[in-house]
Amino acid sequence: MKKATLVALKKSIKKWEKVVDGSGEDDGSENCALCKRFDAETCVLYGEQCPIRKKTRRKGCAGTPFITWQNHQDYDHEESFPYAIQLGCKKCVVLAKKELNFLKSLLPFKRKRIEVRVFHQKEPFDLVIKFIGEDGKWNS
Fold first, then answer.
1. pLDDT on residue 101
2. Which pLDDT does position 109 carry in this prediction?
3. pLDDT tens digits for 68-111?
4. pTM passes above 0.70
5. By three-state DSSP, how is residue 68 classified?
6. Which of 40, 61, 81, 93 is deepest in the core (most CB within 10 A)?
7. Is 132 helix (H, G, I), strand (E, B) or coil?
């Protein structure tokens, strides 16, 4: 994932953290850093896919908890953008948390170097475990 995309993903996560705690609103693509970074129609920028499209293989937020959140706001509360958690509505909180957790699941896994000391015939030696990175090469 490119650095600018990671920054946009983290900003989108911050947006949803604010929606969940009641201090922010969801104004759809108007206040979504990922939507602002990627083309709204294709969800692609110079060949790089939005992490949401990459995960769902669908355009926009189709296939994500956002659609259920949006439907809940539209039909249960008869709201239009910007959406926010409605006072006393537990379903709003649950759905907003689902979207937040979905976005967090898109964060890249942090690989750490692990060093293990192994004793063989009473003499220590170091064993370094390497990981294959996203680029398919060995990383240490």
1. 96
2. 78
3. 999 999 999 887 778 888 888 999 999 999 999 999 999 987 76
4. yes
5. helix
6. 61
7. strand
Whether 31 and 47 have beta carbons less than 8 Å apart is answered as no
Q: Both tokens of residue 126?
A: 């170091």
For 55, the token pair is 């995960």
Phi, psi of 20 (to 5 degrees): -65, -45
Residue 83 pairs in a beta bridge with 26
Residue 95 belongs to what H/E stretch?
helix 90-105
Beta strands in the chain (DSSP E): 44-45, 48-49, 114-120, 123-129, 131-132, 138-139
Q: What are phi and psi of 12, to 5 degrees?
A: -65, -40
Do the Cβ atoms of 32 and 15 come closer than 8 Å? yes
